[in-house]
Amino acid sequence: MHPGAPGGSNVNPNAAPGPIPATTPLVVRQDQNGVQWIAFEYSRDRVKMEYTIRCDVESINVDELPQEFKTENCVYPRACCHKDQYKGNRLHYETECNTVGWALAQLNPCLRGKRGLIQRAVDSWRNSNQDPRLRSRRVRRMAKISNRKAVQQAQHGAHMAGPSGPGAAGVPNSAGLAAPGPRQPSMSMGGPQLHHHHEHPGGGPGGNDDVSAGHEYSEAHTHHHQAPNGQGNTSPNDVRQAQNFYPTFPTSSSVGGSDMPPLHDGMGHVSGHAPSHATAVPVSKQDEEERNIALFGDLPDSKRRKFILVDDVQRGTRVRVRVMLDQVQMEEMPDSYRKLNSVFPRSYFPMQMTSPPASPRGSRVFDDEAEPANESTPVAGSQLVPVPMLDGTEARVPKPRLTRAKRGKEITLNDLGYRMSWSQSRVFAGRTLFLQKSLDAYRNKMRSTMVAAGQDVTNVAPHFETRVGKRKWMERSKKSRREQSP
């Protein structure tokens, strides 16, 4: 039975997304450093998410990774043993999948500790490879079916058109013509072909698009690739040899055959040390504690709330929201999820899809803010925008810029919103307004707790104050009344 096309008429479109089959990755990018990125979808808590990961696995020497890291991030745990202790018939295949998974987990912290997500990343890496032998059996089977149908249609068209009829472009032996040779470099999209992955149809000239430019990885800008044809229509020299980074695997005939080609011949030219942009800089434990104190204040654990009740006006109920935000690991969140759940979208910036990775405060992203000379007047920007006037003319007015203090507060509130939505992704899926309301309720609760503990919220955690303007207005009113009183 051949697999049908996904999304048939008998599929319920309102059903919660379950396991998503591994297909050809949706997006392929290459940044200014030559690092290649692929995007795939995976469901977490029945919410579909898009992960964009870097796939330059040849830059990682898996032999230098600690055994604890390998045990925690292996796809097939039974293959993490000596070949004499292995129980199964796919030692070669499972060992290679583990090796690719270790390299991808080292390059992408959002994959670590999640076996199913690592397996999906490995499948996406395989299906995006230019060598058709590395692709999954399902993808190759679908490619054979598509090629068979294309050949039949071409032969039928040639039979109807006669011996001199035109043949189908790119179809072998169509209309009596010889099969085309390897694809010429002139057929690329204005630049050199990616050696490891398919060229993205939306790439700019040169093929070195920055993955963070324009944030073109959202769902609305996602471009699906054509299914791989499964034929080796490219020469062997087109396949990138730098991907052969695997150590020597057992070649005993007693081990079952693998559908992946041997990749351990080109080991000599791969450096044992990763380049400077290979992995993110790890955050020390002390820095993490200082950041948690700046976010949540210096309250004891007994004073911190675990849940709060928020009125859901749209659904007419009260929702129990988990607010143990200090236990959320920010490295697990993909950039696409952070973009969709930003309380202040203008202060969003990608964390993972940049080389080197961006800092948590966006210091290298938003570096043009300035401090105002007077707090009552906004900071004038350098960008001019046309504004219609009352007399029908247009005037070019500088666009106001955010100050560093305002930008820092919005980044902090975005951070809190990411943590709150990640704890209950199903509750906040597609509900940004409810997320904002829940975040305001959490800020008010935290502020009242800190005030009851005798702390000055304006100095310790000013981002927990929701109505700063009202407080300043009341302070000015009290000051004016005191001055007017005799």
From TrEMBL:
Pfam families: DUF8032
Region of interest (Disordered), ranges: 1-24, 146-288, 355-384
Polar residues bias (residue ranges): 228-256
Taxonomy, superkingdom: Eukaryota
Positions with biased composition (Basic and acidic residues): 212-221
Stretches assigned to the DUF8032 domain: 35-129
Listed name of the protein: DUF8032 domain-containing protein
